[in-house]
Automatic annotation (TrEMBL):
Subunit architecture: Component of some E3 complex at least composed of sina, ebi and phyl. Interacts with eff.
Annotated region described as Disordered, given as residue ranges: 1-36
PANTHER family the UniProt entry points to: E3 UBIQUITIN-PROTEIN LIGASE SIAH2, E3 UBIQUITIN-PROTEIN LIGASE SINA-RELATED
Record's protein name: E3 ubiquitin-protein ligase
Pathway note: Protein modification; protein ubiquitination
Organism: Cloeon dipterum
Role, per record: E3 ubiquitin-protein ligase that is required for specification of R7 photoreceptor cell fate in the eye by mediating the ubiquitination and subsequent proteasomal degradation of Tramtrack (ttk). E3 Ubiquitin ligases accept ubiquitin from an E2 ubiquitin-conjugating enzyme in the form of a thioester and then directly transfers the ubiquitin to targeted substrates. E3 ubiquitin-protein ligase that mediates ubiquitination and subsequent proteasomal degradation of target proteins. E3 ubiquitin ligases accept ubiquitin from an E2 ubiquitin-conjugating enzyme in the form of a thioester and then directly transfers the ubiquitin to targeted substrates.
GO cellular component, one term: nucleus
Length: 245
């Protein structure tokens, strides 16, 4: 027989990993609580001051990437700001073409402490505003951040919103078989051929789509090893409803 098959199955609680993500669900919960607290202090600032939070936020816009300039903040010799990720790529100030120098702007850093910045996925629907210290951590687990293609091997460079992941898989990865139902039989052909390979299929069950991946790793102590991965095509929250058993 040239096509031996490998089969395994699992029950209702099947996955704890979600598309394009690692396991950081707990962290995101914590940052949401912090967001709630910080939000109320910003409202106080906005209500008591004459300039609105939005006016202040606009002062921190990087002229190159339109993301925000966050502490530590450096300015050019004429006082223009540029963000820390754009700055190393520039040979002069993008606003005045003058030398960038090495001048810290502590006053703007102090102002940044009082400003609530929008999440960088605001244009994709995230409505949170956060202190600059919480912003980076939140963006890491924001539900609106683009998902990467869940196919193994990182060959596909697609990224987009969660709701488009299935459409992408169906148009760009047509060869992946989708099966329905809660009993899963995974068919992997040619498992004895040499080399590290992945087998991928989709399973629709429990109202969700799951990507099943069988990974072969060549020759661990002389024998090939197989790893099975189940990923829900969904958010971290949805993934929390499932577990390996
Ligand atoms: Zn920038
Ligand atoms: Zn300048
Ligand atoms: Zn967000
Ligand atoms: Zn893809």
């Amino acid at each position: 027989m040239k096509n031996p098959t490998k089969s395994f199955s699992w029950s209702s609680k099947s996955s704890s990993r979600s598309a394009g993500e690692d396991r950081e669900a707990k962290r995101s919960k914590r940052s949401t609580e912090v967001v709630g607290m910080a939000q109320s202090s910003a409202n106080t600032v906005a209500a008591s001051g004459s300039s609105s939070n939005a006016d202040l936020v606009s002062l921190f816009e990087c002229p190159v990437c339109f993301d925000h300039v966050l502490p530590p903040i450096q300015q050019c010799q004429s006082g223009h700001l540029v963000c820390a990720s754009c700055r190393p790529k520039l040979s002069c100030c993008p606003t005045c073409r003058g030398p960038l120098g090495n001048i810290r702007n502590l006053a703007m850093e102090r102002v940044a402490m009082t400003v609530m910045f929008p999440c960088k996925y605001a244009s994709m629907g995230c409505e949170l505003t956060l202190s600059h210290t919480d912003k980076v951590e939140h963006e890491d687990s924001c539900d609106f951040r683009p998902y990467v293609c869940p196919c193994p091997g990182a060959v596909c460079k697609w990224g987009g919103p969660l709701e488009n992941v299935m459409a992408h898989l169906m148009s760009a990865h047509k060869s992946i078989t989708t099966l329905q139902g809660e009993d899963i039989v995974f068919l992997a052909t040619d498992i004895n051929l040499p080399g590290a390979v992945d087998w991928v299929m989709m399973q629709s069950c429990f109202g969700h789509h799951f990507m099943l991946i069988l990974e072969k790793q060549e020759k661990y102590e002389g024998h090939p090893q197989f790893f099975a991965v189940v990923q829900i095509i969904g958010s971290r929250k949805q993934a929390e409803n499932f577990a390996y058993s």
